Description:
The chain is an alpha/beta fold. The chain has two domains: 28-180 and 227-377, Alkaline Phosphatase, subunit A (3-Layer(aba) Sandwich); 182-224, no CATH class. It has twelve helices and twelve strands. Strand 4 and strand 5 form a beta hairpin. Helix 7 runs antiparallel to helix 8 (201-214) and helix 9 (228-240) packs parallel to helix 10. InterPro entries: DUF1501, TAT_signal. It comes from Sulfitobacter mediterraneus.
Amino acid sequence: xxxxxxxxxxxxxxxxxxxxxxxxxxxxxxxxxxxxxxxxxxxxxxxxxxxxxxxxxxxxxxxxxxxxxxxxxxxxxxxxxxxxxxxxxxxxxxxxxxxxxxxxxxxxxxxxxxxxxxxxxxxxxxxxxxxxxxxxxxxxxxxxxxxxxxxxxxxxxxxxxxxxxxxxxxxxxxxxxxxxxxxxxxxxxxxxxxxxxxxxxxxxxxxxxxxxxxxxxxxxxxxxxxxxxxxxxxxxxxxxxxxxxxxxxxxxxxxxxxxxxxxxxxxxxxxxxxxxxxxxxxxxxxxxxxxxxxxxxxxxxxxxxxxxxxxxxxxxxxxxxxxxxxxxxxxxxxxxxxxxxxxxxxxxxxxxxxxxxxxxxxxxxxxxxxxxxxxxxxxxxxxxxxxxxxx
Length: 391
């Protein structure tokens, strides 16, 4: 007897092994994947909370920096990048990527969002990729990218969790899930299920995939999962080694109003883990074709506050990694930190729209014309000259 092909959703639903609930923990994060017809891989990470780019890539060569950050400048010495900028010591493990030109940064960038400094509005505009909030809420820029490409076929659509990333909302089909599903089966029950399902190749494949999602090894019962951010990176890496070409997910914990010297290193450590796990799991050949970008809704104030932290600001930092990017450089037009150079005399001045480097990376990955990227993917954007972010 032959069986009609089943979609992944049908297989997993039929096997009854994966739940569809949203975790209450703030560590919950959706991961979304989509197929694409080009060979490169694009990974987009939303850093929710407003990452302090001035602490991550420190302008130690700017004479105003030390005076603005007398407390945050203490502690372990930052890692020199180019004689002017230095990297936060929590990202020490990424320095080999910097030296191989597989890690880079774009400083003093922001979305068009200004002045109110709301996380919700800032993230909405970041994920919409539009000129203002009036254009947000319809679809996201990553979905519009896929709509502009021919022959895009997403993995069979299915979702785990209730809130997919809005940058992937839109007409193009996208698979959304969280990698926190678990097999609540005893080892005995799992072995019995394996024996029963071996007679049905599709059901058996569903069981094997469910075990992968739960972090278990086939035939060994449900295993103990690692940290959530590592599981996300591994799950993304597994799909990107196959037909998937785009992965997008978010990392939380970047809102550093207090005790930034203690809290920021934890978030940076997770970002470092994610990048290095992806590099390892993708393998050398796929990593060479990969561009990873990490974005945040806004930067933070140039001055530290009275509680050892920083408040919501304007311009921030974009992180890039992967074998496809032209790293080993801090890109962007540095505005300086003198009082008159600051935005509203409090924030790092934006000198470029963060959508522009994103658009140039997409052009390098997909070959889409500038007119499409400026008119459809990022409406209202002027990309400017090519900053040569891609190899």
